[in-house]
Amino acid sequence: MRAGVAIPACRAAIAQAPALRRLHFQLGRAYDRQGANQDAYLAYRRAADLGSAAAKVNIGILYHQGRRFEKNDGKARAWFRDAAESGFPEGMYCYATALDNGIGGMADAQGARAWYAKAAERGTAKARAALVRLEIDGTGTGARCD
Fold first, then answer.
1. Per-residue model confidence (pLDDT) at position 4
2. CB-based contacts of 58: which residues, under 8 Å, 6+ apart?
3. Distance of alpha carbon 110 from alpha carbon 107, whole angstroms
4. pLDDT at 84
5. What mean pLDDT comes out for the span 122-137?
6. Degrees, nearest 5: CA angle 124-125-130
7. Helix 53-65 crosses helix 73-85 at what angle (to 10 degrees)?
8. Helices 21-34 and 3-16 sit at what angle, rounded to 10 degrees?
9. How far is CA 93 from CA 5, 79, 120, 124, in A?
10. Contact at 8 Å (CB) between 128 and 115?
11. Domain range annotation of the chain
């Protein structure tokens, strides 16, 4: 993605169709690629407010990574949970990684197992792999959402 080209194109598209969450999400991705994390957050937030579970995952990642943005694992975990509860497989996986690795709260093997299983049922291969590691090693598998 060429962020310098994508940002004005996304803005122009949003001016034409401001209620399309996909456009706000793509604008967030362009800002994210550029390293403009506060702008990425605002665009993702608008997409999330319009119902984008993918945007919720990306907001969680921004909070978890804290690159030129507020680092807050509690908020990351909450955004991942919201995306998971909406039925989005990547959100399920990310929430499971937070539960597995104690990101933003206590580790929860039972919860991690349940969410990894839900994500795996929906075809998320990395969730199947993490589920196996969780069964063998217990919590703290190091599975990552990013």
1. 86
2. 25, 28, 29, 32, 40, 44
3. 9
4. 98
5. 94
6. 100
7. 160
8. 160
9. 32, 12, 8, 8
10. no
11. 77-146
Tokens for 27? 């604008």
Helix, strand, or coil (residue 53): helix
Mean of the per-residue pLDDT values of the chain: 95
Token look-up 């990310």 returns: 94
Virtual torsion, Cα 112, 86, 65, 114, nearest 10 deg: 0
Q: Which residue has the higher pLDDT, 98 or 69?
A: 98
Q: What's the pLDDT score for residue 132? A: 94
Distance between CA atoms of residues 32 and 128, nearest Å: 28
pLDDT tens for each residue of 76-127: 999 999 999 999 999 999 999 999 999 999 999 999 999 999 999 999 999 9
What residue has token string 């579970």? 53
